Amino acid sequence: MKRWLKGLGWMLGTIATALGALCFSPLVVDRSHPAFVPVGYEYHYKGRPFSGIAYSLFPSYQPQHALMVWQGKRIGVELVWYDNGALMASRPYQDGLPHGPWKQWYADGKVKSLKNYIHGVVDGETWAWHANGRLAEFNLYEKEQELAHKSWVADGVPFYNYVYQAGEKVGMKGGEFCKRLEVIKK
After folding, report:
1. pLDDT for res 102
2. How far apart are CA 172 and CA 178, in angstroms?
């Protein structure tokens, strides 16, 4: 019985908070509205944390940008489009921080980049491609610390190739070795 009452209290509190937020914020607002302003990493409407959906449209009335905000913080997936209607970016958020796979595309629909965030910190592999579809860049991160990097020019020729060892970049840049050639040859 106590657990049920506690759950009911939490649910009513959540609904009251949502209604309170909506009383001061419209459910949907155009991002260009003068009362909709970024405050640090939050969004406010008429001086209060915003809750709802913020959007912007191209002059053709096609969607340009959409994001969900709860009590000033971005939540869910932020979407950005090109004026031709193609998706440009998909960026998930949790509690106002980037969280999950960020994806970008070129206007023709080809993948431009992939990056993963965990609670606002880049973690894992990141990938980027040139407009011609060739791989442009690979990075490996551990909690925002870069561990390795490789990049190529648009015709596929390697440009950078290094890792970090004991705080030093070890590898190549445009055919030149960064440091400690003997480590690379092993």
Report:
1. 97
2. 5
